[in-house]
Amino acid sequence: MTHDGGPLGRSPARPLNSSIDDALFQVATELADVVYLIRLEPDPQFEFVSESVEDVIGYSADEHYADPDLMRRVVDPADAHILSELMRIPEGEPESFSVRWRHRDGSVVPTHHHARKLRGDDGSLWVVGAVTELTEASRSRDAVIEARIEAGEMLRAVMDSMLDPHVVFSALRDDQGGIVDLVYVDANPVACAYLRIPREGLIGKRLFSLFSGESASLLMTWAAQTLGRGAALSLDGVVMESAVTHRAQRYFDVRAVPLPGGQVSLTWRDVTEQRRVARQVADSERALRRTMDDSAIGMCLIDGDGRFLTVNEALCDFFGYPADVLITKTWQELTLEADLNTDLAQVERVLAGQIDSYRLTKRYVHADGRVLVGDLSVSGIRTEEGEFLHFVSQIVDITEQTQLREELERSHREYELLTQYSVDVILRVALDGTILWASSSSQEQLGWDPHELVGRRNMDLVHPDDLEWFREEAQRLAREGGDSSIQARFQTADGGYAWLDAVGREVPATDGRQAYRVVRLRNVDRLMEEQEQLTYEAHHDPMTGLLAGHEARRRVSRMAERCRQEGRGLAIAYCDLDGLKEINDTHGHAAGDEYIRAVCQRMTETLRDGDLVGRLGGDEFLVALPGIHGADEAADVMTKVSQAVAEPWRIGAFTVTPSLSIGVTVVQPGDTVDAAVDRADAAMYHGKRTAPGRVSIGRTRPEQ
User: Fold this and answer.
1) Residue 595, CB half-sphere, CA atoms under 13 Å: how many?
2) Domain of 84?
3) Does the CA dihedral 481-485-488-490 come out positive or negative?
4) pTM for the model
């Protein structure tokens, strides 16, 4: 690449010694690894990048010059922060870091960078860096270069200098022309960082004035050999200690290239870590082979035609063949015919380069004829150039799992079939109350289409009056475990409510499925009606519909407690219907019954809301008056009742005037209901003896 402005092809000021710019950048453009020069101000832009960048990531140097944003796009998104950190490195400080580049074809290229921020003669700010490609491809190229050198094929000098630190020496000779020292003419930022000397402190300095010992002597020897032969010098795996830190011996690759004017270009690379990694890779490969042999999963290598190249013991066990027999077969003949085309289609896609790998479940034929099910994973292995080598396949035996899953699915189908024909409604409910599934009987029993119930919460269907105790009962049953049974009113699709008996049991969590509850809903409307009727009959007088005596006393007790808590008064009235015996004797018991019902109706119509009346038996009645402030007020209320009852009543051709003898009393602190009732009863009989049909007050003390 030659443009106006010299071999670099770019004219802006550079932070390098102008006397060796052309030679240095000529070297850089020939490197297989990448050297770059970035101007940071006003916006980051490549001023130079070696031609080898196209070999590494597929983009040419010209593309980097033309598109400043390419600097950001070629960096893998996961490492974008490293680019920002590069822009913030301190001026003059060397930095070393690894970053992943994105090749034009989308592949990832791991690289290692040595960079340094410098300020040019004109005050501009620059970053100079060298890149080492860490892919297998770069290591392959290194191996090719070494092989060609050993074969006598001398590559151009700069192709031998694929290392990070780079210095240029000028030989200092004596009168006889012998080299007595080396003078630093230039050094790239990575070399300065490695030597721990800033560039301005290095250029023009003699080698032996800065360093001594074995390392300096070796540099002299290599420079003399290179200049004396006029050819590049390539040394790999040289063992020596660091000239700067005098650390323990390390391994270096060294390249020396003669330059015009009696100068020599020297690059080196510390390959100690690479050698360690190479040993680790070799160890890993051996471990992988052992892992394959010891793996419980069937593993094999297969060529493009389907023939086995390598099989492990687990695969032999899977198919039921010894290794020497299995190796003679193809995977096609071991595959169940019905599944063959599916696998072949995927194989063709891998061979065509459309996909790199695939995974599927397929059936195989065992040596004894049994059908096996395997979870197959296949990857295609290719060379760096894309040439197909072989398949790596893994087969996990899932025959038993598949059989169990099919059995489970069959059980589910049978279960759902049973629920479809069940009269009861069957629900599958999440532990948070969300309905997951409903049987079709929900349509007939509740009017809900099953799909309308799915996603709703069961609590949303419970009658508001039943909701609180339903929730409490459900929580209690959930704590106690086992089956639960709750009766409540549930909403139907038409807006009404039906009494349902809900019986549920929790199903524990299993692999891949959370715990849930199976609930059976049975319509118990008729049962609840019968229970309500029985309860009503047990608590009410069958002839009058009034509360029966025992229920009346029970409710009066509850009323008394409530009035006490609320600070309200309560009066008790004991009533006796006068003249009932005469009517029964004169007109018969049927007429007497009608007479009782008529009196009861008049009483209930006259009493206040909230008052309670019950029939104690025969012609006696009990009345409770909450909110009463005294016996006189109670007497006034019952006088109105007595007057209403005393309206004439016809029985056949006769007219009678009913009358009630009434005794009233106020429940006192410390009173029992029975005591108050007895006091009212006594007052009633006292009045009845003197003047039937009157209201008498029963007092505990004279001042009442």
Assistant:
1) 31
2) 21-134
3) positive
4) 0.34
Gyration radius of the chain over CA positions: 52
Residue type, position 614, single letter: G
Beta strands in 134-195 (DSSP E): 166-173, 179-187
3-state secondary structure of 590: helix
Tell whether 552 and 680 lie within a shared domain: yes
- φ and ψ of 175, to 5 deg: -65, -30
**532 within a domain of the structure (yes/no):** no
CA distance 190 to 196: 10
CA distance 321 to 333: 13
Whether residue 168 contacts residue 182, with contact meaning beta carbons closer than 8 Å, is answered with: no
Q: Are residues 412 and 511 in the same domain?
A: yes
Of 339, 363, 397, the residue at which a domain comes to its end is 397
Q: How far apart are CA 702 and CA 383, in angstroms?
A: 119
Nearest to 395 by CA among 371, 377, 372, 380: 377
Nearest to 394 by CA among 350, 348, 361: 361
Q: What digits encode the pLDDT tens for the residues 491-545?
A: 888 888 888 888 877 778 776 678 888 888 887 777 777 677 677 767 788 888 8
Same-domain status, 666 and 554? yes
Element (H, E) at 110: strand 108-119
Q: What tokens were used for 670?
A: 């410390």
Tens of pLDDT, residue by residue over 358-416, are: 999 999 999 999 999 999 999 999 988 889 999 999 999 998 888 888 777 766 665 66
